[in-house]
Amino acid sequence: MAPPQNQIIAGTSRGDTTIDVQKLLDRPWYRYKHLRNLYAWLSVVLLVQATNGLDGSIMNGMQTLTYWQSYFHHPTGAQLGIFNGTQGLGAVAAQFFLWWLVDKIGRKFTIIAGAVIIIVGVFLQSFARGIAMFAVARTIIGMGLSFEYTAAPMLVSELSHPTHRAQLSTLLNTLYYFGATLAAWITLGTLTIKSDWSWRAVSLIQMFPSLVSISLTWWVPESPRWLISKGRNEEAYKILVDHHCGGDENDRLASFEFHEIQQTLAFEKENGDGGWLNLFRTRGNRYRTYIVFSCSVASQASGQTIIGYYLVLILTGVGITNPQTQSIINGCLTMWNMGWAFWGASVIDKYGRRPMMLTSLSGMLIVGIVPWTICSALYTEHGAKGAGIAIIPFIFIFNAFYASTWNGILTGYTVECMSFDIRSKLICTQNFLVQATITGFNYLNPVALKNIGWKYYVVIDIIIVLEILMVYFTYPETSKITLEEVSIIFDGKKAVKNQLLEKQEIDVGEEHAQGKTEKNEKDLDLGISHREVIEK
User: Fold this and answer.
1) Mostly located where (predicted)?
2) pLDDT digits 0-9 by tens, 404-444
3) Residue 401: CB partners within 8 Å, gap ≥ 6?
């Protein structure tokens, strides 16, 4: 009989009843047929974030199109803020019921529902007859996007093999730049269209990822954690066996995961009532809520919204006014961001969450926004054209540090900090805060850039310094353990420990006393049948 594909080794820095997920597999994922199949289906889920990237880049790109500017009478200031801000209003409104919906109908069907809503919104946006219709369409698109990026991070983190959870969860937000890159270069291509179709055609491109979602998401496996919470144990166990163990029922990882999920869900149900007060009921949940609140605001308050939505204003402010030049810079920037974001997702487990967050923020500050601020001041106050042009490379440097870490943190780090019983509520809270912050900055940014210019960047400098202090003193490391075992970091001694490992710990301890084995180097025999696990 072939040996199991997953080797469960007990003992990490978090305790003897945890396992090091990086030691489960001895080969890369692409050498396992079942993981290739699983990640092919998960790529459908990952693609939903490309829709968000398309949306963000399209709003930047449209501002470079002469026909869009003429059609909407060259919006500036607060009026331009309305064009960008209404998307956030739809996203914020959806959070008031999405926390319930995603637990009611599941992760898959929430994504599909979001795709349908986006298609309706994109159609209205593409054929808008005025600012009111365009704003309504942006609101609908925002609501649909909210459906997708509420459910997608949950499905990816809950369905991925434990070894690859961090990379895939981080990769989800990385695909924002894939969509942004497509939109940027398509916008450049439509500059040659001498009609309103130059911007209407770009808008219609937003439908593509949603059409893929509607067509293929039906066949993506559902979250085993959601299935177990609904009492559908047989389905959940089969998904774990098929997609984490290659259909091998003798592989003990499926039993281990199933038992750990069941045990954790039972504990959470016993100690909570399913209400919103659970976010603050225990010390561990208050800590989780703080991480989500602070990270959601920090990710959008560090200057990225200025570049993401108002790059054209920045470039115009330093004398770069040619639409084609602006579009080329936008396209190159999104490709640059995508490359750094993919790199960050690939090394997030190697270097750890905290070191990457701190390095990212420090780089954004020291070699990004500070010299950018200085150059902007020199150009504005003294008319130094060289200083104005120098802002461009500092924008690229700033974005490299941001994209390598912070773009993926909201679907990687924060999601794994959440326990299952409050995950849907915290993700909706996170999305609400992110969209509220983006909406606020979308109204503030054009007004601030117009009225106070480079001094606005000084505010961003101060915000990043505060974020560095926040991460250094309060953010924990969560790498290399299972999704359920992360609770040990937040709940301490009150955290649920896997009873199979607790029993095994005793057995191994006895054998060690007899000189038979080394405790942390034993491939665990869980000593429990698969049928017994499901029925237990």
Assistant:
1) membrane
2) 998 888 878 998 899 888 999 999 999 889 878 887 887 78
3) 359, 360, 361, 362, 363, 364, 367, 368
